[in-house]
Design goal:
By secondary structure, the chain is α/β, with parallel strands linked by helices. The protein has two domains: 229 residues, no CATH class; 147 residues, Glycogen Phosphorylase B (Rossmann fold, 3-Layer(aba) Sandwich). 31% of the residues lie in helices and 18% in strands. It has 13 helices and 15 strands. The strands form two sheets. Strands 1-5-4-3-2-6-7-8-9 form a nine-stranded mixed beta sheet, sandwiched between helices. A six-stranded parallel beta sheet has the order 12-11-10-13-14-15, with helices on both faces. Helix 7 runs parallel beside helix 11. The longest helix is centred in the C-terminal third of the chain and has 16 residues. The two termini are 42 Å apart. The N terminus is likely disordered.
């Protein structure tokens, strides 16, 4: 296999082996090791939620520490629930992206597994890690939070959602994709070699596969038929929230109050919002929560409130204070799961989302949300429809108020059920619906917000 890009070959000094920060966690229980990154976001939340409610095992997290230019400058081992740091390392040979083999990384990983008696690995991210994870003789559960490293640009988006790519398209993507997550990091051959080794590792019998939504299965099948042949099980994420009614009421005689949550970016529909903005603001007052730096072009515009960032703990209060009639999701890439969809529905705020990715699975049209067409004109038409018939919002909010929430505990139970069936030699439960269905997968109780 070709060597990785030059920055991964430079020594940054000796590794810091076993820099002990704290005592080991209590060891009477078996130990899970979660493999993740340190960049926050949905993966961080999923790992922390799992660890916080798990009563079966101790949970540790091995995080890569790095930047967009070099994903794995170092590693950090923390307790899953408390986030107490146990050990940290600076890698002598950094991992600029992901390696097939990396002796220094493997030595650290083996030592952690031996010292803490790790019995199971939950793999949430390969950023800054090595495929040595699959070579420890331990069972691995791979959670498909994203499509990396099969897709170096993570989002499987290059002007439109990707459905696989030939060599010409792949080369073009690495050079010209405006998402530019992996542009100019390594050569096409490097990524192709890594892709082949990754697919081979995933195909091993001791690896279990979990998708947060059925749409992920469809996307994996389109990316590579070999991925579609894996034993893929759908386990939706859970959230632990107290249900509240923060719905604004959608009264006649005023504009609709619409909230748009999350960082504004090309894959989150920034271009669509730009195109529809002048018409949309005539219909609705728009609030951007956590829009980040790229969406500041909407700041100080008539009919707009723009909050660049907020702490997650503040979201509930912001939703109550805003008294919104609708939450708008305009993602253009196929998200594997969207936590904020769960959160706005827990607050009885009707969601409207472009019909892409996990929204196709999670939203039942007119029952717990609305699906929107792909173009900017569809966003405007959707807002006009709701503005002219506000009973649609009121009735949907009332339904949301009665629906139970899928909890983190229910999610973790499903993971242990899968694990037990795997250990007993059973196969994952088959999907009731095909991946293009808009109904919840069988692991979610019908009528549950997930």
């Amino acid at each position: 296999m070709e060597s990785p890009c030059p920055d991964a070959q430079k020594s940054v000094g000796p590794a810091l082996p076993h820099q002990q920060i704290s005592d080991r966690p209590e060891q009477r229980k078996a130990t899970n090791l979660h493999i993740s990154h340190s960049w926050g976001g949905g993966i961080y939340r999923w790992v922390h939620d799992f660890c916080s409610v798990d009563r079966e095992c101790n949970n540790l997290v091995l995080e890569s520490l790095g930047t967009r230019e070099c994903y794995g400058i170092g590693l950090r081992l923390v307790e899953g629930a408390s986030r107490r740091e146990l050990q940290s390392w600076v890698l002598k040979y950094p991992i600029s992206e992901t390696r097939v083999q990396h002796q220094e990384y493997r030595t650290i990983l083996e030592t952690v597994c031996q010292d803490y008696d790790v019995g199971h690995i939950y793999l949430s991210s390969m950023l800054g890690h090595s495929l040595d994870i699959f070579n420890l003789g331990l069972p691995v559960t791979k959670i498909y939070h994203d499509y990396y490293p099969y897709c170096p640009n993570v989002y499987t988006y290059f002007g439109r959602p990707c459905a696989g790519c030939d060599l010409e398209k792949f080369t073009d993507c690495l050079k010209n994709n405006p998402v530019d997550f992996a542009n100019d990091k390594c050569s096409v051959n490097y990524w192709l070699d890594l892709r082949e080794a990754y697919v081979e590792a995933l195909s091993r019998s001791d690896v279990s596969h979990v998708c947060p939504s059925k749409n992920v299965i469809a996307n994996l099948e389109e990316l590579d038929p070999r991925l579609g042949r894996l034993s893929l099980t759908v386990i939706p994420h859970g959230i632990n929230l107290t249900k509240k009614n923060s719905f604004g009421g959608a009264e006649e005689g005023r504009k609709l109050r619409v909230v748009i949550l999350g960082t504004q970016h090309i894959v989150k529909g920034l271009k669509l919002l730009e195109e529809s903005f002048d018409r949309a603001r005539l219909i609705a007052d728009l609030t951007f929560l956590g829009g980040g730096p790229e969406g500041t072009l909407f700041m100080s515009r008539y009919g707009v409130r723009y909050i660049k960032q907020y702490e997650h703990s503040e979201l509930g209060a912001l939703l109550q204070e805003g008294a919104f009639d609708l939450a708008l999701f305009t993602s253009t890439f196929p998200e594997t799961f969207c936590y904020t969809l769960s959160e706005v529905r827990a607050h009885s705020i009707p969601p409207g989302a472009r019909a892409v990715g996990s929204f196709l699975d999670r939203i039942r049209e007119g029952e717990d949300g609305f699906l929107i067409g792909p173009e900017s004109e569809d966003i405007v038409d959707f807002l006009l429809k709701l503005d002219s018939d506000r009973t649609l919002l009121k009735e949907l909010s009332s339904r949301l108020e009665t629906l139970p929430i899928r909890t983190v505990e229910a999610m973790v139970d499903d993971y242990y059920d899968l694990r037990n069936r795997k250990e007993e030699g059973g196969m994952p439960a088959p999907l009731v619906e095909r991946p293009d269905s808009t109904h919840p997968p069988q692991q979610a109780t019908p009528g549950t917000i997930y």
